[in-house]
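so i finally got all the pieces together for this one. its two components total, 533 residues if u count the protein bits. some of the lines might not be protein, just check the labels. i wanna see the whole assembly predicted at once instead of chain by chain like last time, that was a mess tbh
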Amino acid sequence: MPIRVKNPGMFSTIQDLGRYGYSHLGISIVGAADRLSLRIANLLVGNEENAPALEMTLLGATLEFEERHTVALAGADCDAKVGTSPVRPGEAVEVPAGGVLKCGGMKTGARSYLAVQGGFDVPLVMGSTATDVRGQFGGLQGRRLKAGDLLPVRDGRSGRIRRLKPGVLDAVSRHDIVRVTRGAQQEWFGPETFEALFSCPYAISDQSDRTGLRLKGQPLRPREQSQLLTDGIPLGAMQVPQDGQPIILFVDQQTTGGYPKIANVIMADMHRVGQFRPHEQVRFQEVSIPQAIMLLKEQERWLEDAFVL
Amino acid sequence: MNLIPASDSSLLIVLGNAISPELHHRVIGLFQALLAKQDPRIRNLHPGYTSVLVDFDPLRMTHHELAAIVEQSAGPAGTKAEPESRVVSVPVCYDTEFGPDLMDLASHAGISPEEAVRLHTSAEYLVYFLGFSPGFAYMGGLPEKLHMPRLATPRGHVAAGTVGIAGSQTGIYPVDSAGGWRLIGRTPWRMFNPNADPPTRLQPGDTVRFSAIDRATFSVMAQP
């Protein structure tokens, strides 16, 4: 029996690790804004790490369970409860038949992930179950959840429940530093511009969402104003529009764009981008591409080693 | 050819610095060659006006390994065979009901709306790349008389299938979205269907022509 959405929270969608292979048709990669937390939530309940899970933003959802299900939360702590018992991020719990899981507001972090054992049963569209809100497809009818929705669950009772080693999540806890490599149009910017980018804090604008994090701070200017011919946008590219206020292009971003890209968030820190809240401050630190790849490999090893055998 | 690491998991291949049909052929040729490899380590290809961006899995491939594949796919400069180009004829109803900016475009050009439609349907367009939204094709080749800047303030809602122009480009909105292009008509075709294979009517490298249809034909063709 499906899980009923009593209250959808602020902005909740079904996501997985993204839709790849179609960007030449204008189709965004979408998927979880904090992919690391989605993977952890899935692994805790014995799912494949790419299984469809629920991404909740700032204010979580309230869900009614007609049957017993094993679930896990990861990412931002959303003060979740089943009845009066708290559900902490990073541990699998059983919600009994008739139970109500109430996720509240997130005090730190912006996104919380709910995995259910078996995964939500939504169709694969172009190889992914992720919701593409702008394209209006994937996930649950291509849209955010609303009250009264029924979330079907795949049969997956055989999955092995896993536990995290104590304190292991501290290594990926929230951080105001995001590491970047220099971007595709780095030649457009002079050394003083990079110095500003790497020394001044930037505030996250409340206009930020899954398409991009809009930043406010020291304006960044190219050496000369020239027009970039539209080219492809990598995940996490920091583009600089004419007003000089950078934007980190994120999971729902369109596949091509026409502003110069000064820097790019490294893959190992992409999960941090998904957890910033409006008005928080971020600082950028430069790393080389070999360092970025080493940090990603370290993170993968950390995840392999994070669970109790 | 200039290979620029754009991030720790992507490589930007720049083939030139000006928009032209010749450079477009080289971009599409390289894009098609890389697509045909079906290399599971390559995650996405984004052709642009003068470049192809390749996203890859950095845990399974290095920038150097990808660069070697790109150099082999591109072949010696200029010897690449003509890329495949399909010709697609898209039916469009140019009634003002669907094209609220057709009159403005005609008066901007100093011609009648009929002449504007004749010009729009007389040209062959190249699909340079897709972006903005699923299936949105940026097409070059708009007759110069029809060039006009985009709207100062974008519309909050443009219906799927609406045909527009902006600057020297023309395009079709595949899904309901906001949009700043000048709207001149609508196709009854569904330009994007997530459950079809391929999901979009147009692909990079296609040649497109528009054929005018009347309102009655539009209604018949728009039947689901």
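Chain B touches chain A through 51 residues (CB under 8 Å).
The mean pLDDT of chain B is 94.
anyway lmk what u think
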